[in-house]
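Why does residue order matter? Because the sequence determines the fold. Keep that principle in mind as you read this record.
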Amino acid sequence: MTRGTFAKASVRDADVGGRTVLVRADLNVPLADGAIADDARIRAALPTIELLRERGAAIVLVSHLGRPKARDPSLSMAPVAERLSELLGAGVWLAPGVVGPDVSERVAELGQGGVLVLENSRFEPGETNNDPALAEQLAGLADVYVNDAFGAAHRAHATTEGVAHRLPAYAGLLLEQEVRELTAVRDAPRRPLCVVLGGAKVTDKIGVLGTFLDSADQVLIGGAMCFSFFRAQGIATGDSLVEEEGVELARDVLERAESARAELRLPSDLVIAERFDADAEHRALDGVEVPEGWMGLDIGPQTVAAYSAEVGKAGTVFWNGPMGAFELEPFAAGTRGVAEAVADAPGMTVVGGGDSAAAMAEFGLADRVDWLSTGGGASLELMEGRELPGVEALLDRDGDA
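Structure:
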């Protein structure tokens, strides 16, 4: 498969020697009891950080962590700075805040190759509002800006979009590769293109569904979103999770699918339970009519087999969204089966971040796909053909923003 295009200036081309570089990384790692549960996103940021260190830059890293509404010590970047120090084999310092005189003083003390991690960007209320004053303060910390946070590139925040208009702004290595790999699937896939979409909400996937109905060869639906489609067809869904606002959207998709390029497929069997609980009574359902008092929590074995067969024949596979409640072991078989099929597929395989990436990691399959995206929402928006604010704000390759 031909790699996708990327029209923005790369950090490879930036003059950074002896200069301070503000890097927006995606260090939003999961925490468990204050410790990092999965450092994959930190590791993904290393190539850009190491390149900048080798070229003699002083590096200031900024990222959000979780969704704090105010300063929250449990969501401090301290564990991230510690883990990053271990991975780099060098001292990494934590700033006392995001901006302010104390932060500026710490930045001024950085030497070539030094690394400073700013505190959680969402401790600042102006971050998600893309506050110009915050963006101006951030720009005052550095000479050059690099965005390597693909997972946050679909957000027009102060650290992803605002500051990019105030400094020479380049793409990090991860962001560049994310865009290239994903646009290759969208624009120049090896055929057949098989798209597997799961998760809970049709509204989250409606844009990418529309895109792939016109461009893919198969679109395979799983997860709780299938119940909006079943409801639209008049099929009983029992107590299953149904996104009511997604039912009409699903009906429109079903109508479009009748004349679309892609074959749209829904589950043919399910695993149902009396409640959302690992200990609940559950059974396989031969069919998709869910009885009252029961809820569908996974695709069934016939569907796993059928979907796996399509994945195995595909030239390119794109998967986003789990097939069921895989966090509960009795309902993990569908997601595990699809994950194993993707891992075994001979074609190009791309997993679109979020819960799908978490599932691949949980099942020990993350290293068996060609590209495991760090951005769930960002990957979907890019696949839809939408502009990502954090990418669009970067310099073009000819030097113009």
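The first strand starts at residue 20 and ends at 24.
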